[in-house]
Amino acid sequence: MGFLGDTYVRPAPIEAMFLAGLKLQAKAHLPVSKVIDTEGNHITISRYEDDVWDFWPYITRENAKDGEKRVIWGIALPGGTKLTDEKHYHLLVSAKDFVWSLHVDPIDGSKRPSMKTLISLIANLAFLLRWMVSNGIDRFSQLAGRTHEYVIAARNGGADAKTTVMRRLLLVEKLHAQAGKIDDFLPEHPWPLESAYILAGIDQRMAHRIPKTLVIPDETFIQLAKRAIEYIDDQAKDILSIQTEAEEAMTATRRRGVTDKIYIYGFGTNVARAHGYPGLRELGVEISMLKTACYICINMFSGLRNSEMMSLDSECI
Fold it and tell me: Contact at 8 Å (CB) between 58 and 116?
């Protein structure tokens, strides 16, 4: 509750919205803070396009200073510039989108942060933005591949506590967590197999669980996955059909009372050769490759451990 002029007002809730793909013209007049007066009228306090977002209706602490109730977007940047300067236009839009998305479309599995929490993020966001500008980066997406450089900066940037470093790094993790919800985001996890807590030196308990096996480089992994999927799509049906035909031919031979394995396998070999394979052994190699391709696809999309993969039964889905 509070006063607007002589009118007693209450804060109005902000509706959830999707920011991705929404042009600035469509976002410019969206309210980021508003109140409802005694007659039920909605009065906008700050809009998306404003250089200052005033959240006073949502922060009721009487002794809070005005600066503790506002997001001031004129953040000082290297070279004597400000985030609100024309040259940083796109970075300003990205920063606003990111901060506002945390409130209107929160990180999956997390509760909606309060306006006070959003304001508290700005100091760490400002630190990141200054580092980006100093290194010629004007998009959050361009942080990909350079996040470990930022870890060094976060540690050496005058931080007097591990928690400060941790919060700086958690902000970068949030840029990845909001992937798809905003137009400019970090497309990959900033430090796979690690966390902001570990990198800040706060939580060492889980350090022993970090895998020692090297991660397959993305470029190699993408090609491997692509080939496995194509192999299954293009050849699985024919390979399994030939395998079934060969097994049926050998089973029929056994049913006639034949016990000589070489003779029995000969019928399977005939089937394999009829379909272009040199013999039954080569068909077996093809089946093994198909199983490997299936292993890659299942593991790629599920993240199962090897022991869990090995325990899968036929028709288990």
Answer: yes
**Residue 76 phi, psi (nearest 5):** -70, 130
The neighbour count for residue 37, using CB atoms within 10 Å, is: 15
Distance, in Å, from the CA atom of 110 to the CA atom of 248, rounded to the nearest integer, reads 56
CB 210 within 8 A of CB 202: no
| C-alpha 136: how far from chain center | 24
CB atoms within 10 A of CB 97: 23
**0.70 surpassed by pTM:** no
Task: Look at strands 31-36 and 42-47 and give their pairing.
Answer: antiparallel
CA distance 39 to 9: 9
CA 54 from chain centre, in angstroms, equals 30
The tens digit of pLDDT for each residue in 253-297 reads 999 998 888 888 899 999 999 999 999 999 999 999 999 999 899
Would you state the structure tokens that stand for residue 36, as one six-digit string? 């409802």
- β-pair partners for 7: 4
Q: For residue 21, report the phi and psi dihedrals to the nearest 5 degrees.
A: 80, -5
Given strand 7-11, what is the order of strands in its sheet? 2-4, 7-11, 31-36, 42-47
Closest CA to 58 of 32, 29, 95, 40: 32
| Measured distance CA(276)–CA(255) in Å, rounded | 27
Amino acid at 61: R
Could you tell me the two tokens for 314? 């036929």
Hey, what's the torsion of the CAs at 283, 286, 288, 294, to 10 degrees?
Answer: -140
Residue whose entry in the numeric block shows the structure tokens 């990845």:
176
Q: Which amino acid is at 182?
A: I
Tokens linked to 234 = 């293009």
Q: How many CA atoms lie within 13 A of 159 on its CB side?
A: 21
287-303 pLDDT, tens digit each: 999 999 998 998 888 87
What pLDDT does 206 receive?
Answer: 52
User: What 3-state DSSP class applies to 253?
Assistant: helix
| Cα–Cα nearest to 190, from 208, 202, 172, 209 | 172
Measured at the alpha carbon of residue 212, what is the angle toward residues 206 and 218, in degrees to the nearest 5? 110
